[in-house]
Known about the structure:
- By secondary structure, the chain is α/β, with parallel strands linked by helices.
- 43% of the residues lie in helices and 19% in strands.
Amino acid sequence: MRVLGIETSCDETGVAIYEARRGLLAHRLYSQARQHAEFGGVVPELASRDHLRRLAALTDGALSDAGLRKPDLNGIACTAGPGLIGALLSGLVFAHGLARALGVPIIGVHHMEAHLLAPLLEGDSPDFPYLALLVSGGHSLLVDVSGYGEYRMLGESLDDAAGEAFDKGAKLLGLSYPGGPEIAKLAEHGEAGRFRLPTPMSGRRELNFSFSGLKTALLYKIRDLEAEGPLDDHDRASLALALETAIVESLLDRATRALEKTGHDRLVVAGGVGANRRLRQQLKARCDAEGVRVYYPRPEYCTDNGAMIALTGCLRLAGGAQPAAVPEPRPRWNLSEVTPFSAE
Length: 344
């Protein structure tokens, strides 16, 4: 079975081909980050239009990379949600048209389930059950994973997610979009301990996330410093380090408590924020000390991509999932609502 995967949930257009026997055959990605940087964030209408401009060429390129033709495909998988409604529609319209033309099934994929299963792309995945920490741009989730499609939500964002905290913090510091990589790069030159920002939700028994107050704390800290004079490069780098440290410490605290609650000794970390070097280092140190093994997809599969969509679609179609005539775009979609399936 060969499945074409299409990802258009936000501002990255991803196309990939996954085969059940040989694995990932091709993977192409176009990022609109530079286009949206001048606005300080994603402009939904621009994102939707650009997806439509890129999809045909990216699909042809992926097929060429894999040495295949369109009739060699056995199915189409496309992100159906959650995400920006216009961006989702762009991918679904293209995917539906291609599936109709080829006479193959189309299946709508949950974006966060695809992130959760992305470690399978590395050929080294944990046995069930395990804990998943999913931290992408607009989502911060802790999920108890019992099997394929069997997900119990333990914690989620009450307001801003970790990725949004990075983006908003970067904007306050005059950095470009997307904020996560910019904050991490600037933080390397910061002075540890010079500034301290509160660790969101630290010590709370519940496992939810909240980062809106962290943004406010950073704003007030910047205002206090600017009252004494303009920020210099050392100030900005140290503030970036304080922000990154607070976000990482919060994620560590939530994940550690979830591991204690579930008793799991396996942890999957995925999503764009999962590529953060400081988070990976500190999670590894803490989990090594507790005898917990951590699984990551490589950084290019942490951010939004078509490979994880193709993989998830292939697993679901091979497992007997019923394809939809026309998958419905779902801007909001709770991960616990997906249906279980067998990968046999």
